[in-house]
Specification:
It is built from three helices and six strands, in the order E-E-E-E-E-E-H-H-H. By secondary structure, the chain is an alpha+beta fold. The protein has two domains: 1-40, no CATH class; 44-105. It has a two-stranded parallel sheet with strand order 1-4. Strands 2-3 form a two-stranded antiparallel sheet. Strand 2 (27-30) and strand 3 form a beta hairpin. The protein is elongated. The termini are far apart.
Length: 108
């Protein structure tokens, strides 16, 4: 029977709660050695920045900064655009960053 091989250096522990208990340690067996897993406060999974309190504040700020960056690129490089062309660039380069996984952090 072949078991799944994990890289202990890439595995991390993260607890989601209002009162996060960090005293518990988790271990993984790698190459017949028991190694403790590192604990983290934030992790990125599929482009979503998760923190231990599920506040999404850092994720939203990161996406806003990325959208402003894309808007700056459009303004600097495409000075003479029609409204239709600007709308197309805006929807594809700016709004896509703001809409990605918005149902996760704002389901209403």
């Amino acid at each position: 029977m072949v078991s799944l091989k994990l890289n202990a250096s890439k595995c991390m522990v993260m607890s989601f709660s209002r009162n996060v208990e960090k005293s518990c340690t988790y271990n993984i067996l790698e190459n017949s050695q028991i190694k403790p897993l590192a604990r983290t406060d934030q992790i990125t999974d599929l482009g979503i920045l998760l923190d231990e309190r599920l506040s999404f504040r850092d994720h939203i700020n990161d996406k806003i900064n990325k959208a402003f960056s894309m808007l700056g690129i459009i303004k600097r490089n495409f000075k003479h655009l029609t409204i239709e062309a600007f709308t197309m660039l805006y929807k594809n380069m700016v709004r896509s960053h703001l809409d990605y996984c918005s149902s996760v952090w704002s389901p209403h």
